[in-house]
Amino acid sequence: MSRIGKKPVDIPSGVDVKLLESTIQVKGPRGELSWSFPQGTSVSVRDNKVLVERADDLKKTRALHGLTRSLIANMVQGVTQGYQRVLDITGVGYRAQVQGNKITFSLGYSHPVEFNLPQGISAAIDPKQTQITLTGVDKQKIGQIAANLRSLRSPDAYKGKGVRYSGERLKLKVGKTGKK
Fold first, then answer.
1. 3-80: which CATH number, 3.40.250.10, 3.90.930.12, 3.40.50.2000, 3.20.20.70?
2. At 180, is the pLDDT very low, low, confident or very high (cuts 50, 70, 90)?
3. Pick the residue with more confidence: 115 or 63?
4. pTM to 2 decimals?
5. Domain over 83-165 is classified CATH 3.10.270.10
């Protein structure tokens, strides 16, 4: 059996978990999430714990057992604590500004780049306008938005200029050497 799939997910106080056929809904102080779990897995709520069990030992079902439990645990953590992802903007003149649910970037292109944030995701920018903090309840959505923002101007291989995840380490290439 899956080691991760066997572990129960504790439900903290203030979180409400509902099961509707093959859908689980988690509601907490920060928001509400729902997800349709795959066939072959069954989810039950007992004694303030969510238990995930599988119907058979097929390879596909075994693979989905631990995944289902992890996604439910991420939902519970998202509605209680939330998730955040920090991005750094490196480069002379590179900056960002937030206006409502839209981020406007100046990334060395001939035009400003505008990025609309989806509902449920908020962004904050530090006073130097070089660090973006994304916050929300859905871990997958936060990660996807961070990846989309990074792809607007990925860090280049020689100087490292661009948008990168905070704490991301880059191995910079050496430039050309002069003639002797």
1. 3.90.930.12
2. low
3. 115
4. 0.89
5. no
